[in-house]
Amino acid sequence: MYSDESSSDELEAIRTERLDVDLEMAQMHAEADAWHAVRERGYCNHGSAVGYINPPVHEVQKLLKPGQLICTAGCSTIFHGDEDWYAQLDDPMANPVPLPARTPAPAGK
Ligand SMILES: [Zn+2]
Question: Is residue 15 very low, low, confident or very high in pLDDT (cuts 50, 70, 90)?
Answer without folding.
Answer: confident
